[in-house]
Design goal:
With 80 residues, this protein is an alpha+beta fold. Helix content is 35%, strand content 15%. The chain has one domain: Rossmann fold (3-Layer(aba) Sandwich), CATH 3.40.50. Helix 2 links the parallel strand 1 and strand 2. The relative contact order is 0.17. One of its GO terms (molecular function) is GTP binding. One of its GO terms (cellular component) is cytosol.
Length: 80
Amino acid sequence: MVDLPGYGYAQVPEAVRAHWVNLLGDYLRHRKQLIGLVLIMDARHPLKELDIRMLDFFHTTGRPVHILLSKADKLSKTNR
């Protein structure tokens, strides 16, 4: 299991973020022990571009991908 807390929310310079993306891509592509991806998303917020890129990238590995929505209890009744 790999935990990437706040991978899309860290306020860092773009060069640092680009470096992280390269490191993460290499790790996900080559780490044989990774058998799937569970992307835990806050149900109150839509997918961001980085989330979509992560899903698209991991899909190409042929490994299973699942999205787990958290904080659904925090949604307003109209958004449930």
